[in-house]
Every structure is written in C-alpha cells, then in structure tokens.
Amino acid sequence: MKKQLSRTLLGFKLKMSQFGRDVRGVVAIEFGVIMPLVIILLFAILQYGMIFNTRQIMTHAARVAVRSYAIGESTADEAETMATELLNNEALSYTIDVTDDGTDATIDIVLPMSEAAIVDALGGSLMDGNIEVTIKMRMED
Q1: pTM, to two decimals
Q2: Which pLDDT tens digit goes with each residue over 31-41?
C-alpha cells in the first residue's frame, strides 16, 4: 500500500511539474483578457473624437452667425437661422440664443452631451452635462 501511495504521489508530482511548463493556450487566455480592454479604449477614443468634432462644428457655426449679426449683415433671427443651417443636424436638439447688449453681440449654442455621444452606455453617468459654445464679438457702429 505504501509503495502504491508513493507511486501515486510521484506520478502526481511529475504531472504537476509538466503542467507548470505547458504553455499551450496561454496566448488565447492573454488575448481574452487584453482584447476587451483594447476595444473599450478604442471606443473611448472614437467617442471623444465625435464629441470634439461636434464642438468644433458648433464653434464654427457660432462664429459665422455672430459675425454676420455684429457687422449688421443679419438680424438676430437671421443669425440664429444661419447657425442652425450651419449645424446641419436636425436629429440633435441645439439651443441657440443670440443676444445684444448694445456694444457686444453674443451667441450661445448648447447641446446635451448625451446627444453628441455615439452610445450613452453608462446611462447618463458619463455623459452628464452639456457642450456649450459662447462667442462674443464687438458690434460695428
């Protein structure tokens, strides 16, 4: 009985030492662990790029519209319409406000961040807040 137990333990030790040196399947496990992280990182980069692009479009629309209003080429309503046309996306709910204090013309464009996102995966916790653009120009006399 002792001999058989000794052989069984020896066989077990041999199999365990072989198990420690066997590297088959390690690449698949590493791929399975790393790949979701890489996909999440790429998605985050794409998401940030889309939001940044939306803000750049909003800034351009605000500059063109407020300049037109400040130099007297358009009224406040026409400047707001111009900004809406330059934003060129009816699916998003932009809020546009053109104001004039007598010396400066200001345009504010606001868009909820969750609308600019590709997918609001975390249910609003990550995409809370707004994208806000404010451009101010001196009125011409």
Answers
A1: 0.73
A2: 999 999 999 89
